[in-house]
Amino acid sequence: MTARRGIPAAGVAALVAAQIGACGPSDAAEAGRAGANPAAITAISTEDAPPKASQPRTRRPTFSFEAQALPGRIRQRASGSSWHRGCPVRLGRLRFIQMNHWGFDRKIHDGVMIVNATAVSAVRTAFGRLFAKRFPIRKIRLVDDYGADDFASIEADNTSSFNCRRATGSTRWSEHAYGRAIDINPIENPYVHANGTTSHRASRTYLDRSRIRPGMAVARGTLVNAFDAVGWRWGGRWSPPKDLQHFSATSR
After folding, report:
1. In terms of domains, do 230 and 107 share one?
2. Which residues contact residue 71 at a Cβ distance below 8 angstroms, ignoring those fewer than 6 apart?
3. How many domains are there within the chain?
4. What is the DSSP letter of 50?
5. In whole angstroms, how far apart are CA 52 and each of 22, 30, 46, 159?
6. Does 39 lie in the same domain as 152?
7. Is pLDDT at 85 greater than 90 in this prediction?
8. What's the pTM value of the predicted model, to 2 decimals?
9. Number of other residues whose CB lies within 10 A of the CB of residue 218
10. Is residue 101 part of a domain?
């Protein structure tokens, strides 16, 4: 056996033996049948082998939800806007929620909302279900972004909850005034007057509920099922007028 340059013959023999051992009996036998001398197999450095391509891991999107007492800046912003003296709920009973959601662009977006402290658990569960199903929501912003104007918030197709206001067409407090109701995708799910019309031009095409499109609330659909699961009631089941965007902890 001829030694390689810089390696004694004994060292080469050891390398060859190690290589043959790594190949195993069947590999050595196969080499013999092919006419090759197993003893002539030389060790191959792992540094000479091409690197294996790493498979990138795709992270599964996760639902994010955080609820806390209203921070000072949020209390200040809501005071005199969505909340004012005489409202049926104290600011201390409200919670500021930060969560993510799927949009109509199939991307994840951040949203914020104010709800009653008693509604936090149900809201977390319902929106978690919607996230898992990738149900699209246009946006989730405080109604204060629109001057606490419900009409303007709807025109922007904004999903929101707390707003100290009266119920539509009534003198009683809305469930929104308690933070126990949420309007979701109000353009796709309009308030339908008893005569079958809507006050929002963009919602007119959605008066036809037989053609189901993304973001719509329909019986036994993803949105309605998510809130049925937590015991909230859907305004689409009311006798006319129907409030298709409306989900509440009570039946109002």
Report:
1. yes
2. 96
3. 2
4. P
5. 20, 27, 12, 48
6. no
7. yes
8. 0.77
9. 17
10. yes
Residue recorded with tokens 């009683």: 172
Cα distances from 221 to residues 127, 135, 137, 212, in angstroms, run 14, 10, 14, 10
The confidence score (pLDDT) of residue 53 equals 58
Could you report the per-residue pLDDT of 132-184, keeping only the tens digit for each?
999 999 999 999 999 999 999 999 999 999 999 999 888 999 999 999 999 99
Find, among 135, 122, 124, the residue nearest to 99 by Cα: 124
- Within this chain, do residues 181 and 233 fall inside the same structural domain, yes or no? yes
DSSP labels, 134-157: T-B-S-B--GGGGTT-HHHHHHTT
Tokens at 89, concatenated: 């709920």
Q: Give the per-residue pLDDT at 168.
A: 84
Encoded amino acid at 4, one letter:
R
Cα angle 79, 81, 87; round to 5: 70
**CA atoms of 134 and 63, how far apart (whole Å):** 10
